Structure formats: structure tokens, C-alpha cells
Amino acid sequence: MVADKASGMTSHDVVAKTRKTLGTREIGHAGTLDPMATGVLVLAIGEATKLVPYLSASDKEYEATIALGVETDTLDADGKEKSRVPVPDAWTAALPAALEEERARTMQLPPIFSAIHAKGARSHELARRGEAVELAERPVRVLSLDVVAMRADSFDVKMVVSKGYYVRALARDLAARLGTVGHLGALRRVRSGTFTLADAGAIIPLVTAATRVLPKTTLTEAGVLHARAGRKIPLEDLGTKDEGEHAWLAPDGALVAIGRIEEGAGKVTRGFRY
């Protein structure tokens, strides 16, 4: 299912609330949202938790406000102020080049207030204890980045980015290119993969979720029996010769497994109960 997360809640808060509502602990989420952020949080329930790696890998679309002139420790409006730097009068003229540089980005330095592991703990835990944290740059992609509104010392953007991209880091880096400091004033995720705010509140069937993030193929009845038993599947029972992972369906449309072709036969990656 898709939740429209409210500001002030952690992603874990949403999971805990949903566990209580549905009476099950078998719930996970795909793609953390910071407490300040709102919008699409994809929740996986029961067998759907096996889909989390695929749900998390999708590109994400955001609407964000970049506030200039004030730096915070967390790089967002929830953090403590660290510094103030005057905003140059010419920042608007410098913005197009700064945006173009961001669009070309392939590596990004994550904020130290993040869930990335460092020294055997979460980076944000170390940062809150005042310990020095050094994180490595991570590969990212910026598929689109456009300004949709401008004010005296802030502006709004709409963007589509890859897994692992931190919009808080965007605020830091854009502000630096404009000759000042900055932080993320607001953030709303409007899409995660194929899941949008229009999906919020509804329980999405397992097979629908799987086929929205993976290509699908239909097995023969013999192929279903092989897959259920965890055996390799002959290509004639697989329904496709395409490489890469697919959602394998039974002839009646039920989700059987996720699998791929290896060494001339189908191999189950993740099986599903029935």
C-alpha cells in the first residue's frame, strides 16, 4: 500500500501505526522519508516485503523548497542553525549554471545526518553524539531538475532522481554554487517508481505491485510446479528468453516467484506463498 506520510512522523512511525491498524508485524517500507518530509511512502505488507529491494530501487520524484542564507546541521528546516551567510544579489543569474552542474552529477556526498552505516552505527547517531563522521560519495543520477517558483531568498524545484540521492545535499550544494549556504525548507515526494499520491490509502494486490516494478512472464503449469519446488525451469516452460529478473506468473495470474535466466534455465530468486 501507499501512505501519504505527514510531516513530523518518521518512516518507522508510519510502519508502527500500520502494524497496529492491520494487526501484523510483517510490514516494511521502500525508501525512507525524513520526519520533515511528506508524501509517498510505499509500504510492503506480508509477502510483499520480499518486493522491498525492487520497490526501493525505483527513481523518485520530489517537490522541494531550497532556502538560502542559513545552514543547519541536518541540512533541513528541522536542524539547528549552524551559520548565516549573505545571499548574493546575483544568485538568480547564477542559478541556471548551478542547476546544469547538478543535472550532470554522477556522485554525491550524503549528509552526515543520514541512516548510512559508519563505524558500526548509523551516521546520524554518531553525528548527534558529536563524533566526526566521514562518508564516501555515492553514485546517483539526476533525471530532471527544474525551478518552478522563485522568491527573494528561496526557490522551489521539481525533480526526478535515482535511488540514494539526498535532496538535503542538493540544498547544500546548490547554495554553495550560488555563493552562500542553504538548507531544505520543505520536501514532498510525489512519486516512487510507478506509485503516486493517487495510490495513497489503497491496498495494492501483490501481483499488481510486482508487475509494476518488474517485467512479467507467464509460466506453464509444469513451470509453476518447478518454481514452487525451487527447481530450475526449462526455457520452454518459462515464457520468455529475456535476461534480467521477471515476475513469474501462473496461468491463472497468481504471482509464483521472481526469477531470472541463468545457465540456460530459469532460476528462482524469491518465491511466494500460495
Distance separating the two termini: 20 Å
What would you give as the CATH superfamily of the largest domain? Pseudouridine synthase
Quantity of strands, as a count: 18
CATH topology of the largest domain: Pseudouridine synthase
Sequence stretches where pLDDT stays below 50 over 5 or more residues: none
Helix % is: 10-25%
Number of domains: 3
Description:
The chain has 274 residues and is α+β, with helices and mostly antiparallel strands. 23% of the residues lie in helices and 34% in strands. The chain folds into three domains: 2-58 and 194-208, no CATH class; 60-192, Pseudouridine synthase, CATH 3.30.2350.10; 214-271, Roll (Archaeosine Trna-guanine Transglycosylase, Chain: A, domain 4), CATH 2.30.130.10.
Short summary:
This protein has 274 residues and is of the alpha+beta class.
List the helices and strands and how they pair.
Elements: E1 2-5, H1 11-22, E2 27-30, E3 38-45, H2 52-56, E4 60-68, E5 70-72, E6 81-84, H3 91-103, E7 107-108, E8 117-118, E9 121-122, H4 123-128, E10 138-139, E11 142-150, E12 154-161, H5 167-177, E13 182-192, E14 195-196, H6 206-213, E15 216-218, H7 221-228, E16 246-249, E17 255-262, E18 265-271
Parallel strand pairs: 3-13, 15-16
Antiparallel strand pairs: 1-3, 2-3, 4-12, 4-13, 5-6, 7-10, 8-9, 11-12, 13-14, 16-17, 17-18
